[in-house]
């Protein structure tokens, strides 16, 4: 027979009808009650499934009752083994197993191995061994043993019993059976057979069966009886044709009655369900309306909570006063539901004078530009004096409103205001400002809005105090830093600018510094350094280093020598404090640059053609590690060249590596060739992402314009160390001064040349080099030789005619001096034009 499956998890009325029809056809071809029972049991075993189509019943059994006298010997023997009171009387009914599908548990006959079960019913043994079947037989009822033949049996009763609790299932049939097969429920159903006997079917199911589904098996029980009817004891060939017709009619009537009863039950159940669903639907609609209302309230509350949290976090972190007051005004206006709002606040100027500013929210600020600042009228006095909150459902009806000239109310063109709410912002007794909210409709502000605005005012007061304190401390630190840094002097032949930006966060002074030092010989010293750390200590160390650096520079020391001496100084005044520095000397007249680096980022040099390179060929250790040698680098600095010295705050920040920052700086320097002030501002904006930087930034930017070079502005001569060099040098100086139109200075310059060249010939006794240069406002003469002995002012005795030439130069020249170079020295003198 083709497999037909019925889903026990969704067993319905239609499933019941189909199942009954299939059951009635199942025993076709059977020849006895046993074979018919096996066909029915097999159908139920294979046909019942779960929601996934798997077999739902691991065990199915079918029982019938028989008189003790009619039992075969084997069944009697089985009954004796299960009966505690001995053999029952011949007329007693015994429940016997007719068919079984499944393998557990087995009631096997020890002699034959066949599965057998027989027990008298009703009896204590049956109630103990098969309690579910015993209860089912009791409910179906049995025919009395002395009932006369030919007397019609009582009306057929078909019953159903369900054990739907897994715990009871385990108690009835054992933990091992229930666990192994996953038994969730047990269903027993049965009824009378035509010969007065009873039949019973037990299904052990993996699917939990509800009581409603179990009731549908009452009709299934009728279909089982119909299937077994041809093979019961009263059926042909022993019964007459009339009796057979009568029995089949009775079976059909029973089936029809069961169907009608099931339909009525299902209809009643459906009516109950419809009523319950209708009530549930009404309740659901009501709940949905309530949920929507609560959801809207919760959304509004959540929006307020989120706004308060966001505003609190923002105000706590915001230190920019202008951004803070605007954010507070916008948030408070949203929270109160005002049509527009304003925040008036007091600010102290540099002279300590207080003045009133304001921001507008909800409308464009231009709507209020033509109105004067509010005065302490009777309406505004409460807020501006910090006396308390003023809330009015209609401010135009307030007795304090409209008494002040010149408007006696709102100025012409003012936005209409009926609902009015004003909250002072007070901190430690000081009135910092006030919130003002308006709406054109009356009665818009409630007590809740007042509480929210008051809370906003409290948060704003704390944030304002923090911002004002931060601004004061930051201004103080910046002012201190700027006073420690120099105003860059003007140096002939170059244009320069500098920048110092304290870190975007923090209020303490830093240790970055820049310096540009004009040297006596016309050169310029360029310095950028960084003392790590913040606070007064770092600033003090920076100031000492800067002062010492200027002193060493004025001694005419080379870049390497200056850094060596600074390293010893740092080791003495600030041991362990990391300090880096770049020191360079720039000779604009000769177009030469010499630099030494102490643990600092290398200077960036741009040539007139836009090529950029970093002077990183030799970088020494940071300052403060004792006397160490610092390598020097020399590079040409022709007209059009540019040089940038900087600290690490310019190129290094969170989210960007140092190499990336240096690469970006190289690109910017290569692209720029404009005005140096604009270049610096542009670089800062790009490299700090609009002013967001974590460290101090110091920059020194130098440019040698192409117009600084002048043809014929320098004359150079080289001489052997012989006395003939002196008169030739005098002649060259005289001719050159005449060419330059400076005859009035010719005598002074010839005396200086006479003395410097003569000293070189007399004392150095090495080849020498004389150079005469003209700058914008001075004439400079230099004599270079290979001797390291420097001329000095020495007092001579009256009878001693030596050492008087230097006194002569000191009297004539504006400045003079000596600087050491590799392989010798340079003696120079300068005269102002």
Could you describe the 3D structure shown?
By secondary structure, the chain is of the alpha+beta class. The chain folds into 4 domains: 6-268, 2-Layer Sandwich (Beta-Lactamase); 318-473, 2-Layer Sandwich (Beta-Lactamase), CATH 3.30.450.40; 485-708, 4-Layer Sandwich (Phosphatase 2c, domain 1); 714-832, Histidine kinase-like ATPase, C-terminal domain (Heat Shock Protein 90). α10 (321-336) runs antiparallel to α12 (447-484) and α13 (536-554) runs antiparallel to α14. The longest helix is centred in the middle third of the chain and has 77 residues, at 241-317. The model is unreliable at 143-151, 234-239 and 708-712 (pLDDT under 50).
């Amino acid at each position: 027979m083709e497999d037909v499956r019925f889903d026990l998890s969704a067993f319905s009325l239609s499933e019941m009808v189909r199942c009954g029809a299939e059951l009635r056809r199942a025993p076709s071809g059977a020849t006895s009650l046993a074979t018919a029972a096996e066909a029915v049991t097999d159908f139920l075993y294979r046909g019942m499934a779960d929601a996934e189509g798997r077999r739902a019943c691991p065990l199915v059994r079918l029982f019938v009752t028989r008189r003790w006298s009619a039992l075969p010997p084997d069944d009697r023997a089985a009954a004796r083994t299960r009966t505690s009171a001995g053999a029952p009387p011949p007329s007693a009914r015994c429940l016997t197993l007719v068919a079984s599908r499944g393998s557990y548990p087995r009631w096997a006959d020890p002699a034959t191995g066949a599965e057998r079960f027989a027990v008298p019913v009703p009896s204590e043994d049956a109630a103990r061994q098969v309690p579910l079947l015993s209860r089912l037989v009791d409910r179906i009822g049995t025919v009395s043993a002395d009932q006369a033949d030919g007397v019609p049996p009582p009306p057929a009763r078909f019953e159903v019993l369900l054990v739907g609790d897994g715990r009871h299932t385990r108690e009835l049939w054992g933990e091992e059976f229930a666990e192994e097969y996953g038994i969730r429920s047990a269903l027993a159903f049965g009824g009378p057979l035509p010969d007065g006997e009873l039949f019973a079917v037990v299904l052990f199911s993996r699917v939990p069966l509800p009581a409603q589904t179990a009731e549908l098996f009452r009709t299934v029980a009728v279909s089982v009886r119909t299937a077994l009817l041809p093979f019961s004891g009263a059926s042909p060939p022993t019964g007459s044709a009339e009796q057979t017709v009568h029995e089949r009619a009775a079976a059909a009537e029973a089936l029809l009655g069961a169907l009608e009863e099931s339909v009525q039950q299902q209809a009643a159940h459906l009516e109950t369900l419809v009523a319950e669903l209708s009530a549930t639907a009404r309740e659901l609609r009501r709940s949905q309306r309530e949920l929507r209302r609560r959801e809207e309230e919760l959304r509004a509350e959540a929006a307020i909570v989120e706004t308060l949290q966001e505003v609190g976090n923002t105000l706590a972190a915001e230190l920019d006063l202008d951004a803070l007051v605007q954010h507070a005004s916008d948030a408070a206006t949203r929270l109160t539901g005002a049509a527009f709002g304003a925040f008036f606040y007091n600010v102290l100027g540099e002279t300590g004078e207080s003045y009133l500013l304001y921001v507008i929210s909800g409308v464009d600020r231009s709507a209020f530009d033509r109105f004067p600042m509010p005065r302490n009228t009777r309406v505004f006095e409460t807020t501006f004096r910090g006396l308390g909150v003023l809330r009015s459902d209609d401010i135009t009806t307030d007795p304090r409103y409209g008494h002040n000239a010149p408007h006696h109310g709102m100025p012409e063109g003012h936005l209409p205001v009926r609902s009015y709410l004003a909250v002072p912002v007070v901190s430690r007794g000081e009135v910092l400002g006030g919130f003002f909210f308006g709406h054109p409709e009356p009665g818009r502000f409630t007590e809740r809005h007042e509480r929210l605005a008051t809370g906003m005012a409290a948060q704003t007061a704390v944030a304002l105090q923090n911002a004002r304190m931060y601004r004061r401390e930051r201004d103080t630190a910046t002012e201190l830093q700027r006073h420690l840094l120099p105003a860059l002097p003007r140096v002939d032949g170059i244009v320069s600018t500098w920048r110092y930006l304290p870190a975007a966060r923090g209020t303490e002074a830093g240790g970055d510094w820049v310096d540009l030092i004009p040297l006596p010989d016309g050169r310029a010293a360029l310095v950028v350094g960084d003392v790590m750390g913040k606070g007064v200590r770092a600033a003090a160390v920076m100031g000492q280093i800067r002062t010492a650096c200027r002193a060493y520079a004025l001694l005419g020391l080379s870049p390497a020598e200056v850094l060596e001496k600074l390293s010893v100084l740092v080791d003495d005044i600030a041991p362990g404090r990391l300090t880096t520095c770049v020191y360079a000397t720039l000779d604009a007249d000769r177009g030469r640059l010499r630099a030494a680096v102490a643990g600092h980022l290398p200077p960036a040099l741009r040539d007139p053609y836009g090529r950029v390179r970093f002077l990183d060929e030799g970088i020494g250790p940071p300052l403060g590690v004792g006397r160490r040698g610092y390598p020097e680098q020399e590079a040409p600095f022709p007209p059009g060249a540019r040089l940038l010295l900087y600290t690490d705050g310019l190129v290094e920040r969170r989210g960007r590596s140092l190499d990336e920052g240096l690469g970006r700086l190289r690109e910017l320097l290569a692209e720029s060739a404009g005005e140096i002030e604009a270049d610096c501002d542009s670089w800062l904006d790009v490299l700090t992402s609009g002013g967001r930087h974590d460290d101090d930034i110091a920059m020194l930017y130098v440019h040698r314009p192409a117009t600084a070079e002048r043809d014929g502005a320098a004359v150079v001569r080289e001489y052997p160390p012989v006395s003939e060099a002196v008169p030739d040098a005098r002649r060259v100086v005289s001719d050159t001064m005449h060419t330059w139109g400076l005859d009035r200075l010719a005598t002074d310059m010839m005396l200086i040349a006479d003395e410097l060249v003569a000293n070189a010939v007399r004392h150095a006794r090495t080849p020498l080099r004389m150079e005469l240069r003209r700058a914008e406002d001075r004439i400079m003469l230099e004599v270079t030789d290979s001797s390291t002995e420097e001329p000095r002012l020495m007092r001579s005795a009256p009878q001693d005619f030596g050492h008087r030439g230097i006194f002569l130069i000191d009297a004539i020249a504006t400045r003079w001096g000596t600087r050491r170079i590799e392989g010798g020295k340079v003696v120079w003198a300068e005269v102002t034009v």
